[in-house]
Amino acid sequence: MTVGIGALQCVVLDCPDPRALARFYGELLGGEVDRPDPRWSLDDDWSTLHAASGGLVLAFQRIGDHRPPRWPDPSAPQQFHLDIEVHDLDRVHGEVLGLGAVPLDLGDGTRSWRVYADPAGHPFCLVRH
Questions:
Q1: Is the pLDDT of residue 3 over 70?
Q2: Most Cβ neighbours (<10 Å): which of 23, 43, 124, 128?
């Protein structure tokens, strides 16, 4: 293992409503929304999720003219995506829809992953464990 120049502090997602997207991912991944942290200030333009697993922090930044990616359209690339491991794709499908996710590519039922968009339009994959 090599030592890098820096350490990953958080992953930041641009969006129109930071707190709403933090709550979406909080329900999806578990963890604490807007936990006080000396590394940044929390306000209407910045929200965080300290995820339940492994200390990962997702941050959400308000962008006034946010234009979501259009998966899989290369003229508006996905910019990044999260892979989220689950045990039962069918059961979790209904849960993420209930949280506000939108299915983008559910496949043919034989592959081990499905693509969704979060409420701000960022793609993410549910991947069978």
A1: yes
A2: 124
